[in-house]
Amino acid sequence: MKSNITLPEQHSVEKDLALLYGVMLGDGCLSKSGRAHFIVVSGHMNDDINFFKKILPIFTKIRKKECKISYKKNENTIEINFSDKKLFDIFREIGMPIGKKGISLKISERFDKKLYNRLIKGYFATDGCLVITNNNGILYPRIEFSSISKKILTQTKSYLESIGMKGGLYISHQPNGKWNTLYRTQFNGKNNLEIFRSKIRFINPKHEEKYKNWKKSG
């Protein structure tokens, strides 16, 4: 990844930064308030707590400052939320928008393709889904991503196809006055799932647990 901002321990940080960038593409947000530059990742209190415990040390490693998980019990959500101008500027420079991400969201060209597996791993952890459907007693898996940005799903699909997966890109919901077109890219079947788990891997424990339950049932 090329950047004008100098990172400490550049080579060891690149992979971690790509992973966190992927996380931010899904459930992350950059925001400014006065002189504060906030980086926020949100998740479900029950489903994502173990995942947050895995990425928390990565944020701490890059910042060289401790991070904490905030609990919003009345909303059943959790957050990693802190102000860090240097890391904020890094994310901003490599293409993360401030505020709502919207239909123009895409994977930054700043990332070398060798880092895409880490980036997609982080993106899937927050915005991807492992779906298991029961068809007459047979459990069929599929990997899928949904977004109002067709661009990011096109990029994701292209990379996953480059590692041997086979999938499609579809319109999930048509637009109306309240929302934009929702797109979905999905990769059906056991072979696609096994390729994804082997070459990308799951960092969110809920996905690994679902995979193992499917294997036991299959």
Q: Layout of helices and strands, plus pairs?
A:
Elements: H1 10-27, E1 28-33, E2 36-44, H2 49-63, E3 69-72, E4 77-83, H3 85-93, H4 116-127, E5 128-135, E6 138-147, H5 150-162, E7 168-173, E8 182-188, H6 190-199, H7 205-217
Antiparallel strand pairs: 1-2, 2-4, 3-4, 5-6, 6-8, 7-8
Helix pairs in contact: 1-2, 1-4
Give an account of the 3D structure.
The chain has seven helices and eight strands, in the order αββαββααββαββαα. The protein is α+β, with helices and mostly antiparallel strands and 218 residues long. It has two domains: 10-102, Endonuclease I-creI (Roll); 125-217, Endonuclease I-creI, CATH 3.10.28.10. The strands form two sheets. The protein has a four-stranded antiparallel β-sheet. Strand 3 (69-72) and strand 4 (77-83) form a beta hairpin. The protein starts with 9 loop residues before the first helix and ends with a helix. The model is unreliable at 2-9 (pLDDT under 50).
User: At the third CATH level, what is the topology name of the largest domain?
Assistant: Endonuclease I-creI
User: In CATH, what is the class of the largest domain?
Assistant: Alpha Beta
Give helix and strand order, one letter per element, not per position.
Answer: HEEHEEHHEEHEEHH
* Rg calc: 18 Å
Give the CATH architecture of the largest domain.
Roll
Q: Give start-end ranges of low-pLDDT stretches.
A: 2-9
Spatial sequence of strands, sheet with the most strands: 1-2-4-3
Overall, the morphology is globular
The CATH homologous superfamily of the largest domain is named Homing endonucleases
Number of strands: 8
- Mean pLDDT rating: 92
How would a textbook summarize the main sheet?
4 strands, antiparallel
| Proportion in β-strands | 25-35%
Total count of helical runs of at least 4 residues: 7
Task: Report how far the terminal alpha carbons are from each other.
Answer: 41 Å
